[in-house]
From TrEMBL, chains A, B:
<dbReference type="GO" id="GO:0016813">
    <property type="term" value="F:hydrolase activity, acting on carbon-nitrogen (but not peptide) bonds, in linear amidines"/>
</dbReference>
<dbReference type="InterPro" id="IPR036264">
    <property type="entry name" value="Bact_exopeptidase_dim_dom"/>
</dbReference>
<dbReference type="Pfam" id="PF07687">
    <property type="entry name" value="M20_dimer"/>
</dbReference>
<feature type="domain" description="Peptidase M20 dimerisation">
    <location>
        <begin position="209"/>
        <end position="309"/>
    </location>
</feature>
<protein>
    <submittedName>
        <fullName>Zn-dependent hydrolase</fullName>
    </submittedName>
</protein>
<dbReference type="InterPro" id="IPR010158">
    <property type="entry name" value="Amidase_Cbmase"/>
</dbReference>
<keyword id="KW-0378">Hydrolase</keyword>
<dbReference type="InterPro" id="IPR002933">
    <property type="entry name" value="Peptidase_M20"/>
</dbReference>
<dbReference type="Pfam" id="PF01546">
    <property type="entry name" value="Peptidase_M20"/>
</dbReference>
<dbReference type="InterPro" id="IPR011650">
    <property type="entry name" value="Peptidase_M20_dimer"/>
</dbReference>
Amino acid sequence: MNVELDRDRFVETMRYQAQIGATEDGGLHRLTLSDADREIRDWFAEQMEAEGLGITIDEFGNMFGYREGTDPDAGTVLVGSHLDSQPYGGIYDGQLGTVAALELVRTLNEADIETKHPIEIVNWTNEEGSRFQPAMQGSGVWAGEHELAEEYARTDADGNVFEDELERIGYKGDTPAEPQREYEAGLELHIEQGPYLEENGKDVGVVTGVVGFTWGEITFRGEADHSGPTPMHHRRDALVAAADVITQIRRLPDALGERTVGTTGHIDAGPNSINIIPETVSFTWDLRDPETAVIDEARERVLAEAERAATREGIEWEYTDRHRTDPVQFSEQCIDAVRDAADSLGYDSMEMVSGAGHDAVHVAKEMDTSMVFAVSEGGKSHNESEFTSWDDCYAAANTLTNAAVSLATADR
Amino acid sequence: MNVELDRDRFVETMRYQAQIGATEDGGLHRLTLSDADREIRDWFAEQMEAEGLGITIDEFGNMFGYREGTDPDAGTVLVGSHLDSQPYGGIYDGQLGTVAALELVRTLNEADIETKHPIEIVNWTNEEGSRFQPAMQGSGVWAGEHELAEEYARTDADGNVFEDELERIGYKGDTPAEPQREYEAGLELHIEQGPYLEENGKDVGVVTGVVGFTWGEITFRGEADHSGPTPMHHRRDALVAAADVITQIRRLPDALGERTVGTTGHIDAGPNSINIIPETVSFTWDLRDPETAVIDEARERVLAEAERAATREGIEWEYTDRHRTDPVQFSEQCIDAVRDAADSLGYDSMEMVSGAGHDAVHVAKEMDTSMVFAVSEGGKSHNESEFTSWDDCYAAANTLTNAAVSLATADR
């Protein structure tokens, strides 16, 4: 038996949420713990209440809505994503997955469908990690990956403390930020943020795992000299060394794996003046692959290139590892549920590994998990031109709903 | 007949001026038109007055002190440099050349030496160009290279307007900023800011000309995508293209000329976030050589590489020429005067081309000109570790003094 979401209501709900923190160019600027975040949370709580869900706000602001099952001993199926956005980000990202979770319970209530397993929907705090680092913070605290006190103390660029901001918007709850029940399975719908579904002409993605990644920062310290009278052979130019490593990070993936990616997203130079040789340059690496060994190899090669570049320029260097996440392999049970749901609805699906981290990575530490991916036009995300057609949004939401229902009604 | 400066008084004067705007680490932070600039100007005016010089402050703040000659028809010899500094710069730079010009007139007065030609000493406004661009601004306006109104309207990083700041410190004079007399010759003492004198074991440099240079900015516009799920072949990474050109700017000089130098001193990336592919990267070029043809060739090759890099990444690019100065060949008369002065004092000198622009480049448009260079330890400048020994300062100041006296007493 398939359950079908009400397409009109679903699209209307997506459009409604996109107004809160809307940008002039059709995007979304709904940074975590901002006034816009409070507003979307208030709305989300109202919707959950209207559906008769049991609401829990935990001490880290994660919002849960619980729908009882028929078997008091059956584990809960957890479904959801996040409602915060990147600065001037898109309106789909994780919002789609949270709206779809809400539509799932609306649809079950409307059709009076009972499930053996309880279903709980969730909006995780600060998935984006742009205002406060790290990303996927709420699910990370909840899964025991991060220390509550440490994450409370994080500050944004203006020096605002996370805990103060959480209190300010009224979402510091009393429930400990940790699993409060037995969970059977977890599902998250998110846009792909990559081009594979579109390139392959598929309707939805069945996510089998998530690439791991390493983040770090390299700093070169050369010598600030006048750009005119300093001969080339006298220079210790930190930016030239950085350029060598940035080039290496661009080329490395071809030499390693089919799914390896490498990026320098951030660079700062000092004194950063047109006629002074750069003395200090700091820049980041972001290296990802589905295989742990490939990630390690990529990081080693980048550091080896930094050492060579520093030697060539005769300068000092240092590096800091900023973050590391191992690749995740999702569970067969949940992958099957997503694939079968897509098949039964007549959607053309493909299995894929997620190139981005998601709350589901933390959820997977607590329970069997998988994800549904929606098509991202041009693979674009984290900017206002992010786009997924309503057809593709609907296909993914329907897949999520039916996968959740099949897991929640399974005889386990 | 040689004139010898009073070494103790000269060193004491150098030390005195270095206190005004001194940094904790022994450098100088005396940005143009700052309170520290006002203080050093007040001091300089007092010293000139004490020597009985006829003081002129022109409408751009350039300060002149005139010492009469014996021949009313003889052209004036102009001697001086600048008293402003880079942010956290050194205490020698052009300050040495201005103090030496003051010591020149002190010495002539003390010894009651009359010269046929009048001698005028000068402190040029805003040589450094770090607070307000362009560099060598005061001498440029004076020599008719820049429009007064345009330069008045320049703003610093905080939005302060040049003309307002000039009035605020009380140095907007009434005299038009243009040559007010007939000039016979110009001389400027400056630290070398390069390593050639030290490497060759010389006492002073005889400057035969100044390299020309081209300044410009290249902007690449790629696409901001998520660093995880965007495959390498889908990327339009503005920073990778910039790295290619920065590398080219580093390598180019070897392929062009012995004295060619190329620098990227400034870079800005956006959105500049660890997990977003850089969308916009702007960075500068600074290319210098004694030959116009080589400068043009270097600029062409950099732009050609930018075009290739943009094509490789599939991105847009544009460039802006920011500044251009042709190489300058100083006059034989003045070069000879400097070389002969060094010889007669027993200093070991070498002829050299200046790698940096100086006020003397503008002065040379109005009169025969040359420069004296003082040894720069390690070639360092524009930072607090800039260093010239008092012996080397004194040798250069004595050379300047005697070159000026020989030009001022010559029978022309």
